[in-house]
Amino acid sequence: MQMDKRLSGKTVAILVANGFHEEDMTETQKALASEGAIPRVVSTEVGLVNGWHEGTWGHNFYVEVKPKDVLPSQYDALLLPGGDRGAKTLLESAHARRIVKGMMDAGKPVAVVTDAIQLLIGTETLAGRTVTSRPEFREAVEAAGGIWSESGVVSDGALITSIGGETLTEFTATFLDAIEQNAEKAREAA
Question: Which domains are assigned to the chain?
Answer without folding.
Answer: 11-185 (3.40.50.880)
